[in-house]
Amino acid sequence: MALGDWESCSGSGLVFSWLGMNAAVRAVVRMGIYVGAKVYFIREGYQGMVDGGEENIKEASWESVSSMLQMGGTVIGSARCKEFRSHEGRLKAAHNLVQRGITNLCVIGGDGSLTGANLFREEWSGLLEELVQQGLIDEDAVQKYSALHIVGMVGSIDNDFCGTDMTIGTDSALHRIIEVVDAIMTTAQSHQRTFVLEVMGRHCGYLALVSALACGADWVLIPEMPPEDGWEEKINPLTSLLTVIINALSLSSSLCFLVVRCLGFDTRVTILGHVQRGGTPSAFDRILASRMGVEAVIALLETTANTPACVVSLCGNQAVRLPLMECVQMVGRQEYCSQDKATSFPFLSNCRSFENNLKTYKLLAHRKLESELPHSNFNIAVLNVGAPAAGMNAAVRSAVRVGISEGHKMFAVNDGFEGFYKGQIKEIKWADVGGWTGQGGSLLGTKRTLPAKHVEKIAEQMRAHNINALLVIGGFEAYLGLMELLEARSSYEEFCIPMCMLPATISNNVPGTDLSIGADTALNSIVETCDRIKQSASGTKRRVFIIETMGGYCGYLASVGGLAAGADAAYIYEEPFDIRDLQSNVEHLTEKMKGAIQRGLVLRNENSNENYTTDFIYQLYSEEGRGVFDCRKNVLGHMQQGGAPSPFDRNFGTKISAKAMLWLTKKMNETFRQGRVFANTEDTCCLLGMRRRALVFQPVVQLKDETDFVHRIPKEQWWLKLRPLMKILAKYKTSYDVSDSGQLEHVVRNIRPKESDASGAM
């Protein structure tokens, strides 16, 4: 059923409480108004609900949430409220809500705020009875407002709430940390210094762990894995200079003293503090918060008197709903059992993804001694193919170090398949990839050359270096190249080896995966530029900006970037448009500009239409908007490919590369016969991609039917379902398909894998 068809929700109230990301505030307000509900702000969290009054509980309008996507913090304020913890305080809050006919709460906060909201819901009928006894409301009000419905969204930079892969605000905090770490790395290397960096998360090590994974920190200390007795002595054997130690245990001074005393290294301490809570939200957080905000409204509309309070969350790339109290009860009640000790301690971090990150960090941070490495005679080659994408270097580093940890000999191929047939192949060691995670582009070099015309020479090189497996990192050219190597198996036995591809392209146009390495960095570049462009118009007359993005025929960057930047329209190839659509968009913007809206933003994918070019759209908007608004245009170009990789791309590239290497190891062992690897089945030539909730290995030959080879895009693309969301938030009258919205599920407890089961942890 389309959301636009629902008419039964008029008069409902939606309320915010506690910490709220502004993108979530904007999404709930506009989606609520879209479905015909009255939407209220409650300022300063539960304090505003208890105090009441026009200033604290105020009806929101469409315009009241304009120009807030790029703002950090929460524009409606948040505050801790002791009074709400008392029965009397909750009684006051109930009275204030009933006075305004509010029976639906959307609460954005942590486990404390959400637990308080659930208690409020459970007491609701009793509170109404008390209000009747005190003569503050009548029996009709009790009948009319008999049930209180609650939906929660988790806002926490610590990512410490069980049931969701990522909480609102975490990715932005990681951006702040990585910005600092990248800056510190340069001075640490220049001055031969060690830096101890303290991040937030005294009860949860997610920020510290993922930051360490994303920047290649030499050491990380987290509460889930506190230092063992005598851990200080383990630093002594390290002969190389420690660059960065990330600490979430408030031990910075002790660590600094230890490094100086034991190793004699010049050491400095940097404590980030509340820097991690501020700044502009990342593209990921804006998209996550917008999706969760809309999902929260849909969940409220679908609630009944028997529906438990729920939390909308993220699992993989899928929105889900989980019972609120099941999630709260899991936080802090899991146990992380040490393999070395018979003791256990609280495992406070995210149930779904923390263990994966921890295992991956252990694989990559410290090289095992030669005596500890498994014995292997396998050689694996890794190469980048196609256009460069931020995060490629992190993937290569991960592949090299996991491969060496598995006992393999790793070979790097420069300049893709072109370098392969020219013999630009050399062994690459553990130390060779140090410091690669934070560097953009492709340090191995990359070309768009396909292998079909050079298979004989490539086969010669593989024979000369005895290559037993191949890891290809790249975009659509890598996908085509892998299929060509698969076809060459019938003529050259050298290609009868396990082969795996990791999708890495800013266009996100590879079939078989929802996300590609590099796309998040490109989105952040687009969103940051759009923020600056819109800010340039502040204080001027009404203005509309026409922005052209990259992506070939794939409209991912334009559509998802438009959602994150608050665009009014995004023109893409996948959704054909004509002059009537353009005229309708101009009229829509003209109408908005006559009101309180001062700026408009329109994105266009570079190949969206060969006739309706960026220049044409700019001229059309300029002419038709004459007297109401003026126009400016900007072609973003290759700036979308550059820059340091985002924390998401570093982490994503690192984890899927590690998983791919473990898969290649498994396949080589399975296909080793008579002194050689021989793999000629479809399932030994795969693409590793994110599909909704899971990372999946898919034979490339099975992806042919899913591919539009002419336009180099998948035939079906998940993000197209986000386009109606962008239109709704831009005040267009359109329908919204709720068939893909989250359904109420239950929290499944994670079973900790054994220490040796690295593949299971990935």
Folded structure, characterized:
The chain is α/β, with parallel strands linked by helices. The protein has 4 domains: 11-167 and 281-334, Rossmann fold (3-Layer(aba) Sandwich); 170-274, Phosphofructokinase domain (Rossmann fold), CATH 3.40.50; 367-517 and 646-716, 3-Layer(aba) Sandwich (Rossmann fold), CATH 3.40.50; 530-641, Rossmann fold. Helices cover 36% and strands 17% of the residues. A 7-stranded mixed sheet has the order 16-15-14-17-18-25-26, with helices on both faces. A 4-stranded mixed sheet has the order 4-5-10-11, with helices on both faces. Strand 14, helix 12 and strand 15 form a beta-alpha-beta unit. Helix 7 (206-215) crosses helix 11. The longest helix has 24 residues, at 647-670. The relative contact order is 0.11. Residues 1-20, 237-241, 333-349 and 750-762 have low confidence and may be disordered.
Write a brief caption for the model:
The strands form 8 sheets. Strands 16-15-14-17-18-25-26 form a 7-stranded mixed beta sheet, sandwiched between helices. A 4-stranded mixed beta sheet has the order 4-5-10-11, with helices on both faces. A 4-stranded parallel beta sheet has the order 7-8-6-9, sandwiched between helices. It contains 22 helices and 28 strands.
